[in-house]
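[audit] Reproducing an earlier prediction to check determinism. Same input, same settings, fresh worker. If the tokens differ from the archived copy the diff job will pick it up downstream; this log only records the rerun itself.
[audit] input (205 residues):
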Amino acid sequence: MQHTLESFVRTLQQDGIAAGKAAGDDIRREAALTAEQIVAEARRAAAKILDDARKQHREEAARQAQELQLAARDALLELQRRMCNAVERIIDADAASILGDDSHMVRFIETVVTAFAETEATHPDEAIVFRVSSDDARAIVRHALAKSVSRDSTVHAPVFREETGLLDLGFEYRHGGSAVEVTPESVVALLSPLISEEVAARIRR
């Protein structure tokens, strides 16, 4: 302000009332202008604070929404993993029960012998090797082979050999450079991708 209260008093003393009145008018005008400037600046500051608050609110809402989406995704993946594990445990238990049953083992081995009988002509010098987990299972293999050959005289009896050393229920057979394992673990491994796809599809519904 060009005019202050002190200058106003000096003007009254030196120049009289008329001059003091003019100086007072100048002081009021300058005060009003200063007040308007202060109010305008305050409004701009308030608008900026409000804009910043809104921006922070939008950013926080977006961050929370993203975190919620990630949490939901992780929860669904964990649910899928647990459901797959539960189904795999059921299949593993069922496969162990079936492969631990002598009658089922005999039927499985009969199927293998019948399927490989025709390929024996292609590999006449290669035996079908059955690897099992115990001597008892080895006896089951021998019985199944004898049963399958005696049941159908048209089936060419393959050369076979039994071995132990398998670490699980079931059996492994090798012939013509290929090997197939029929155990609870291999059954679960075979079905696992299908289980995962089916569980994921059901979760998405």
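[audit] rerun output stored. Observation attached for the diff report: The mean pLDDT is 77.
[audit] end
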